[in-house]
Design a protein that fits this description.
alpha+beta; 2 strands; 38% helix; 18% strand; rod-shaped
């Protein structure tokens, strides 16, 4: 497609140049009217513009698939270890105590380490 546009624009420009060169120099009486001269100027500008536009690359690009970027890494939060928890291990100790005048009395006490 690009080659066709370039060739057609170049062919049009060549046709205008050859057509203008083949005409003999005009005498004073054969000059073009101002309107005809303006029309030829516009056609020449269009031909040159078409040739320039045909030689340029297109202003758009074909869509290209690009995979999405990888997700960012998850944030890492540093939390210091909690202080050690000291748990007291307690148990109930049963024993018997001699009470004078009464005898043996069962007793309990809680012992924690």
């Amino acid at each position: 497609m690009k080659t066709f546009r370039m060739i057609s624009g170049a062919a049009l420009a060549m046709a205008l140049v050859v057509g203008a060169a083949s005409v003999e120099p005009a005498a004073a009486r054969d000059r073009l009217s101002p309107g005809a001269a303006a029309a030829l100027g516009v056609l020449g500008g269009l031909a040159v513009g078409g040739a320039i536009a045909a030689s340029q690359s297109p202003a758009y690009a074909a869509p290209v698939y690009a995979p999405p970027p990888p997700p960012p890494p998850a944030p890492v939060y540093y939390e210091p270890a909690p202080p050690p928890v000291y748990v007291e291990r307690c148990f109930t100790d049963r024993y018997s105590e001699w009470v004078p005048g009464w005898g043996w009395q069962p007793r309990r006490r809680t012992v924690c380490n």
